[in-house]
């Protein structure tokens, strides 16, 4: 075997070491001499190469067999080798866990490697990916043009920043709103839009803003999204201007916007959509409220207020909380109750949800894509949305009911609740319905009930179902048309067209976009987001055999008082108090003995002397 240079010799020795699962030690590693032996004591293996003048090459002179068994540790399996072998896997899955990576290497190579080696290998691959990261920004102009060609009418806006006219443009923001998604939303979804933002976790730092609708099955329907540099009033205003233009929202009359208390979003909505109803997520309001008011007895009153469908029910629940903790009740309504309580919601959009979980669902569905550079991120979202539409079409073709499955389940729940309702006829399709201790007025002709549950959701409430059954009518016929399979099909009939890959694209005659300045943060990057208080509580509940420490009252072992432990006890550094022993000592000897300790008994046994 002949080698051109010493690098080929080292590569051959490493390949033999890894293939045979034998750990080699390079005893000589020079330009014209190379000798490797097995690290196992007593093994007769020898790999010797030296320079041969006759052929002017390095020649293999000695290669003996191993006399040892397999090695589970191999110093030749280094970070560089792992990075080269698993480069494609790491690029496709930057979140590949180190323990899973070790298990894969153990199965493929038969060698156990240290976790630190896997970590260095991932770092090598991801550092090289930074060059691809720059290239992906250069694709954005062409990618935007290809999206417009694939789906005519699509809105794609890219905002760049030039420090000087002669400098290349720096990426700032990018908005994507496919025409097919826009048509599907307007044809089959209710007039309520969920807005939310989430962090990008890869080299491309920033935020992904999204607008999400609700389809006829009460599931998410992506409308538009944008990559922005930071979440602020300016970025939200830019996003909302483009969204309002695409959907022809005007000032928002007849529309409802659901969101969290995002940075800059509330003033942006108030400025651009002043006539829209703005609902805030009750779950996020509750999480902020419970940080101050931690008593578990008060928490059900918050949700009783949030889910009250009438003003009278809200006032009743509020007074119950106020009678127990006035400060908690006052803090609860610091956020206007019209924005998070059902009792004050509009009945036009037929949605009674008090949270914005529909947007959180979208953020969770793209969590892998959020680790990728901008082109890969946006294309992954496009592909996921395109596949989802095709799957929804296929699922709807198997439905037999005229209304969507989730809505039929809600109607079944209301039907079971209607068993305890009793009605009194008033004539002209009007009724009084007794539901436990409550009584409600219902008018079938106007499809309204004084409980407002039917008005808010568009699904007959238990009181309406009782009256409809009394008149011999099917409650299914009185479900709002927004929940029909026809509306569902109208939404998902607008399919998205496929696209060619970057090699088939026609280049655009524009300066390539450069990424914003990259700033590596110190320390190991955090992958997990901070959990809110209620999420921590739910996480603790997953182990039924362990009592949660959340909201548990602790007692001090020193002073026996509640609310602290012995390490933080206020009496810890207090001056010592004279004890009873000192008092007795000052009074002179007693009849039970002298000095420290207990007095001896009068038995015949004697203690041990000193």
From TrEMBL:
Residues 531-541 have a biased composition (Basic and acidic residues). Keywords: Metal-binding, Zinc, Zinc-finger. Residues 515-543, 561-610 are annotated as: Disordered. GO terms for molecular function: nucleic acid binding; zinc ion binding. Residues 593-610 have a biased composition (Basic residues). The keyword ATP-binding does not apply. It comes from the Eukaryota. Residues 440-472 form the SWIM-type domain. Residues 556-570 form the CCHC-type domain. The keyword Zinc applies. Residues 561-571 have a biased composition (Polar residues). This is SWIM-type domain-containing protein. It comes from Linum tenue.
